[in-house]
Amino acid sequence: MRFDVGEKLSLTLFLLLLSIVLPWHLNGVLFLLLVLFRYAFRPFRPVSDASRRRSSALARYLAIVVLLMTIVNGLLIKEGTLWPLPGGFTMSSEGVTFGLRTGMRLLVIAMSLLLFFGSTPIPRLAQFLQSVGWPVQLVMTLLLTLHFIDTVPDRVSLIFTAQEARGAPVRANILARTKAFFLILSPLLLSGIVESIDRSMALELRGFHGGAKLSFRGDETSRGRMTMVSMLFLILSILCIVWIILRWLLQ
Amino acid sequence: MLQTRPTSGSFFILMTKTVREQFQLEIEGAGLPFVAFCIALNLSAGQLAAALKLPIYLDSVGTVLVAVLCGPWSAISAGVISNVLASAFGNPAMVFFAPVAAVIGGFTGFIASHGWFRRWYIVPLGGILQGVIAAIASAPIAAYLFSGVMLAGTDVLVLYFRSVGNTLLQSVFFQGLSSDPVDKTITYILVFLLCRNLPIRLLQRFRGGNNLPHNKAMDRSYAL
After folding, report:
1. Does one domain contain both A137 and A147?
2. Is B151:B96 a contact under the CB 8 Å cutoff?
3. Residue of chain A with shortest Cα separation from B6
4. Which of B5, B27, B35 sits opposite A213 (nearest CB)?
């Protein structure tokens, strides 16, 4: 079974809207199904080891946060039935329901987005966006950002170490640390501007500012036309929106 | 990837022609790679703030820089792309706050083009105003979509405001009001100081170079 970027995007949109429509226990079931889905279907498997590690770590982190959120809401919100706990504390039914409702929704939202971004390399997303009519400058910005995302954290850590070695107050009081933030950001910005000038010259020399489209290697997903699967998920998404509006109006 | 082919007619266009032209003007010269750099900066600034143990987000430094040096439309793009990529690289909820990032970029670009970054004493005022606007824009999204839970330390504030009897929307709004103006004011002052220290020959590479005060001392020190 093959899914192109457009189909995955429409499925993600449908899942996001579905998480708002479903009650918390069905969202819990949907979350477990999505976890299985990630391993069962090849088009939704993470594209790299880094992506797999990141998404697994995030799923574990979110599950812990949701558990904590449910407990804290149950302890702090004093509405509905109050269940007594040892030590004089009480757990409210409203608080627990609120925590579970929000938490399960967050889990489904996070898992849907992880499914999409984990299995879709950003260059392929950029290619798809260009095929559906995004301005070529925005597509180029997205691709250039990937280069900077790789290099900026290393540059930040290099400048951080250098400034710390020169005596910048990176571990002093909060005001001094704010000043240290400026001391790190200043050379970072300067180097960023210099690199931007170099890159803009390189782009101009290659004729980029002519406004022509970028061509990608292995141009397989640049069709830009809507498939039956995309159409189906978009219709289901519209139905979800109608349901949300009706529910809101009838309340 | 950099081989080009003739432009064909687009199926659906997300921007009107005027906006597209304006955007192209803003990213002329070094603008386009600079927008990309600032998006990466948005994603890394939070990591730096955490390394320095600063209790603020500072995740819109890049968007504000683009707004001042390039213009509002490129800042809106930078904000939206930052949030989409933040979703891809770690915090999935960020994609829903893309409209807030767009508001931050658009508003900063607008006030920067009206000279708010030329005088130091107006800059904090802009930051406070921006913080209030960001709180207003983000409250409905945080309340209705996430019930006020953003998986951050500020969630405790929302819980506190709820426990003293406010509605969810009010609690999220008050939490935004208590943290966003401080964050945005620091961001604005930081960007003002950063840009003020840039030599004029670098500022001239950007369309928004005139949005900033002319620092003659820096010109002399960087003169070739």
Report:
1. yes
2. no
3. A212
4. B5
The C-alpha atoms of residue B29 and residue A209 are separated, in whole angstroms, by 9
Q: What is the rounded distance in angstroms from the CA atom of residue B95 to the CA atom of residue A159?
A: 30
CA A236 to chain B, closest CA, distance in angstroms equals 19
Residue A126: inside a domain: no
Closest partner CB to A181 (pick from B1, B48, B145): B48
pTM: 0.81
By Cβ distance, the residue of B11, B52, B146 closest to A181 is: B52
Contact (CB<8Å) A135/B87: no
- CATH number of the domain residue B56 falls in: 1.10.1760.20
What does residue A207 show for φ and ψ, rounded to 5 degrees? Answer: 80, 20
- A16 in the same domain as A6: yes
Residue A113 structure tokens: 């987005």
For A71, the domain range is: 1-121+225-251
Return the residue in B19, B26, B34, B53 with the most chain A beta carbons within 10 A, the one to mutate for interface testing: B34
What does the alpha-carbon distance between residue A7 and residue A230 come to, in Å, rounded to a whole number? 5
Tally of structural domains, chain B: 1
User: Domain check: are A81 and A166 in the same one?
Assistant: no
- What is the per-residue burial (b if ≥16 Cβ within 10 Å, else e) of A88-125? eeebbeebbbbbbbbbbbbbbbbbbbbbbbbbbebebb
Residue A170 lies in a domain: yes
Query: Between chains, do A193 and B205 touch, taking CB under 8 Å as contact?
Result: yes
Q: How many CA atoms lie within 13 A of A172 on its CB side?
A: 12
Structurally, how many domains does chain A consist of? 2
Q: Nearest C-alpha of chain B: how many angstroms from A166?
A: 16
Return per-residue pLDDT of chain A as tens, 251 residues: 677 888 888 999 999 999 989 998 899 999 889 888 877 887 778 777 777 777 777 777 778 878 887 887 788 777 778 888 888 888 888 888 888 888 888 888 888 888 888 888 888 888 888 888 788 888 888 888 988 888 888 888 888 888 888 888 877 787 888 788 888 888 999 999 999 889 888 888 877 765 666 666 655 545 556 788 889 999 999 999 999 899 888 87
Range of the domain at B57: 24-223
CB-based contact A148 B40, cutoff 8 Å: yes
Beta bridge partners of residue A91, listed in sequence order: A83
Residue B12: which of A132, A149, A186 has the nearest Cβ?
A132
The answer to whether position B12 is within a domain reads: no
Q: Are A122 and B88 in contact (CB under 8 A)?
A: yes
